[in-house]
């Protein structure tokens, strides 16, 4: 068996072991996947120990995704743009770092929810690590424009600046605003803020939603409920981040094994399990 794990602080509630166990069954790949808690000041030592004991790679979750990017010897373009890694692969010549969050979001929106991003107007709410992790792959889908709205406008501007070259080459209008200043209405609104975790209300006005817009929260479970209720009240199509969770895992499985598992049955099972 080839060993993988998810490293985080905390990791007790992670669904990743369940998801990867299903992927291993479905693909026949000899993958064993566990949880590996790391102390806040011990991420690199924990990962190195796991690798020295024969581990083949790991997923990385809060709060270590930025540290994972520095630990990697080489990085994918999407990890470099995000400035963070959620997937490490231990190669004979060093540690390869990738970020599959954005690909997971895009795939869930396009392949599972059936919403095309090309030539659409997208509002990305938030400018922290979660938003940075998905912006590159979002731009690659060729939307007409992407507006980043954030409480701290300077952070939104910095995120837009770091992706300006990619936006230009993909012919996407990319801009940054405050939460109340998003211009116009959007086909797709993605919530990448932590406001619900802090018990806060949805941080943007309902006017940002076009009728029938897709309103996507990157969280799932109770943390997404407020945003999804807000979406329904305003005539939008609500979607939580459970599909993104499964899709980013499938993309990591592909990075490690060269095989992409079928995600639809796994998402359906996981939804039933959590219902
Ligand atoms: P993550 O890695 O999960 O993105 P983060 O880097 O701390 O975490 O970013 C959290 C995001 O949620 C930021 O966009 C933050 O806004 P600021 O950049 O202004 O801090 C946003 N956020 C957190 N609490 C919020 C609230 N109560 N209202 C609006 N935005 C909030």
As a percent range, the share of strand residues is 15-25%
CATH class of the largest domain: Alpha Beta
The string of secondary-structure elements, in order, is: EHEHEHEHEEHEHEHHEEEHEHH
> Cα-atom Rg, whole angstroms?
18 Å
Mean pLDDT, all residues: 96
CATH superfamily of the largest domain: NAD(P)-binding Rossmann-like Domain
First-last Cα distance: 32 Å
The ligands found in this model are: 2'-monophosphoadenosine-5'-diphosphate
The oligomerization state is single chain
Helix content: 40-55%
Predict the CATH topology of the largest domain: Rossmann fold
Number of E-state strands: 12
Contiguous low-pLDDT stretches (5 residues minimum) are none
Q: Give the count of helical stretches.
A: 11
Q: How many distinct folded domains?
A: 2
What CATH architecture of the largest domain would you give? 3-Layer(aba) Sandwich
- Largest sheet features: 6 strands, mixed
Return the structural class. Answer: alpha/beta
Strand order of the largest sheet: 2-1-3-5-6-4
Shape: globular
